[in-house]
Write a structure and sequence with these properties.
Elements: H1 2-36, H2 39-58, H3 66-87, H4 91-98, E1 103-106, E2 112-119, E3 122-129, H5 131-135, E4 162-170, E5 176-184, E6 187-196, H6 199-203, H7 207-213, H8 227-239, H9 244-274
Antiparallel strand pairs: 1-2, 2-3, 3-4, 4-5, 5-6
Helix pairs in contact: 3-9
């Protein structure tokens, strides 16, 4: 029995002695096999290993910068809400709606506003976007309050130009007149007057209507019209309420709309990041 035990012990010792060498051979074989792979196969294998390693870090959906970002958004939101709470509904909006002439169509989340009214058998719509406020470039002033042109700051301040689209349709006749203009400093600067035989083509904001408008003759540039025709078009618009009063209201309401949408944007982004 002692001889058999000695033989078993000797065999086990030999196996243990050979195991490290065998493992080294296996590792060498795997290294050679990996080296023999095509570069693309090596990249796929390594990318798979990296993905397997990084998935656990993103399962929670929480980054290292989330807390500080939410903090800054909260500070900005508190500041904007405090300013809004003290302002309430501005007097210029109350006065405008109290006149009962124009209806304000302001959809939450949209950057466009539509003013609509009836004039006899006509429907007049004035549409503008707050996107023009973001693209406006303010003049730069030096330390003495003068602009780059040398004019005092108080004499160089102008309101932001806002592009408006004015449409006039009739219940008694087909078609629509569309007027493209800029609203600035209490005036409408007409750029173009076009006519569409189909009112839906001229007024609808759809891809189909936009496609139909392409390639159509839109009329001459307004400044190329006879001065007498220009004057009559301006009187035509003024009679329908597209006048100085409306030109003063639009920039103010655009500023109010932009502020409202900005606060809503902060709230939405903050809620998304912190959840």
């Amino acid at each position: 029995m002692s001889a058999l035990r000695s033989i078993r012990n000797l065999t086990a010792s030999s196996a243990r002695a050979l195991a490290p060498a065998q493992r080294g051979v296996c590792c060498a074989q795997r290294s050679l096999a990996f080296a023999a792979m095509r570069p693309s196969a090596q990249r796929i294998m390594m990318a798979g290993a990296a993905r397997a390693f990084s998935v656990s870090a993103r399962v929670r959906g929480e980054g290292a910068t989330d807390v500080t970002l939410v903090q800054k958004l909260s500070e900005e939101l508190a500041y904007e809400q405090e300013a809004a709470s003290t302002a309430g509904v501005p007097d210029f909006v109350k006065d405008f709606t109290a006149q009962g002439v124009w209806a304000i169509k302001d959809v939450s989340g949209s950057d466009e506003v539509t003013l609509e009214r009836t004039f006899g058998n006509e429907t007049v719509r004035v549409m503008f976007s707050i996107a023009d406020l973001d693209s406006a470039n303010e003049p730069e002033y030096d330390s003495e309050g003068e602009s780059e042109t040398g004019e005092p700051a108080s004499e160089n301040i102008t309101s932001t130009p806002i592009r408006v689209s004015i449409s006039v349709t009739k219940t008694s006749a087909p078609g629509a007149i569309n007027v493209d203009a800029l609203c600035q400093d209490g005036a409408f600067l007409v750029e173009n007057v076009s006519f569409y035989g189909d009112a839906r083509t001229g007024t609808e904001l759809t891809a189909e209507a936009d496609w139909k408008r392409r390639g159509l003759y839109l009329g001459p540039t307004f400044e190329n019209l006879d001065p007498g025709v220009q004057d009559e078009f301006e009187r035509f618009l003024d009679e329908r309420g597209v006048n100085e009063s409306l030109a003063l209201f639009i920039p103010d309401y655009a500023e109010l709309k932009e502020q409202t949408e900005y606060v809503r944007w902060i709230e939405s982004v903050k809620k998304f990041v912190e959840n």
